[in-house]
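I am still learning, so would you mind making up any protein sequence you like and the tokens describing how it folds?
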Amino acid sequence: MKKLFIILIFTSLAVFAKAQTSFSFMEVNHVRTATPGLFTNSNKLTICLDSLAANGYVFPLAGAKVISPYGGKRSHTGADVKTCAKDTIRCAFDGVVRMAKPYAAYGNVIVVRHACGLETVYSHNFENFVQSGDTVKAGHPIGLTGRTGRATTEHLHLEVRLNGQHFNPDMVFNCSTGELRHGTLKCTKQGKGVTVKAVKH
């Protein structure tokens, strides 16, 4: 009886630990993937940027200069920011690392899922310091800038995604000054896509 009780305790602990840090095969291996349960009860989601600031925020690359903005003729999915080679990349907000591996044109990439539903993506890294399942805090060093994947110079390719859909990171933070924006993001799921609109208070 005692032996059975001990086995049950260890089994319960193992299941609990797995529930806290485990992701599906798709989540661990692909940048664009939906977040389970994010739009289960409604096709609308509101994210208050000021509440993110209250919980901690650090621009991923202090003093960086934007060398290629979001969008444009190349339909750029993020903003490229640059300081110097092998500079320290820091996590923008508290979260859990969903993906950390080499991935096609992204090179060494890190995807962090945040409690509000947002995901931040950091790519072309020379080195990743974290792995899938790691809990990270705002300001936590997660890697070094590099030029892995499809890149012509050492820099950080920074994306913001919601339910797998990328949108302009400048809606969340001012990529030129590193400051977090104020206001609210109104997010609406339409089919497999998501539209995000910034609303100032």
